[in-house]
Design a protein that fits this description.
The protein has 4 helices and no strands. It is mostly helical and 194 residues long.
């Protein structure tokens, strides 16, 4: 454990020291190792800062937060998939109901025609008016059922689509904003080190 820590610390010092040493005119000269040299002060402050971050396990906390965020996004995507499947099931159910209503209307029309044929000439006028009424009722029922089914399917599809879009957009916006903030912080830290 101690050997691992010393290797990490040595590597960290070598990596961290390179930009500061490269920035000075002669890093091996004795002028570099005086406290009035700003490059040395920046190097020491950066090493102390990195040490504090490592001591308080900030990289581990950041990794944990990022993992938690990834799990949240995954669960939101799974929820959106489930909502989509539910909407498709609902749509299929309404389409099936619409077909049943249409078949029922066709049966009503067929029965009306058969009754008219059997009644014959005696009640020709009465049967014609009955057919007209039944056809109108059947068409109205079909139109009503179709409009109702389409309206319900459309309403459910819109609700599900809006909810899924809102969730996805919210998650993407938050992630993008977080990434932009991280990139800005890295760029600012890099600018201050040079």
């Amino acid at each position: 454990m101690k050997l691992k820590s010393s290797i990490i610390l040595s590597t960290l010092i070598a990596v961290v020291a390179s930009p500061a040493l490269a920035a000075s005119k002669n890093p091996l000269s004795s002028d570099f190792w005086h406290l009035d040299n700003t490059d040395l002060i920046v190097l020491i402050a950066f090493i102390i800062f990195m040490g504090v971050l490592i001591k308080y396990k900030v990289p581990g906390m950041l990794t944990g937060l990022l993992d938690k965020r990834a799990e949240g996004i995954k669960s939101d995507l799974d929820e959106a998939k489930a909502l989509r499947e539910e909407a498709q099931t609902l749509l299929a159910s309404y389409e099936r109901k619409q077909r049943e209503v249409h078949a029922q209307a066709e049966r009503i029309v067929a029965n009306a025609k058969q009754e008219a044929t059997l009644a014959g000439e005696k009640a020709k006028e009465e049967i014609k008016s009955s057919i007209v009424r039944r056809l109108a009722a059947a068409e109205e029922q079909i139109a009503s059922a179709k409009a109702s089914a389409i309206r319900e399917v459309s309403n459910q599809a819109v609700i599900v689509a809006v909810a899924a879009a809102r969730d996805i957009i919210t998650e993407q916006t938050t992630t993008a904003t977080a990434n932009k903030l991280i990139d800005d912080a890295i760029a600012e830290a890099g600018a201050k080190l040079h």
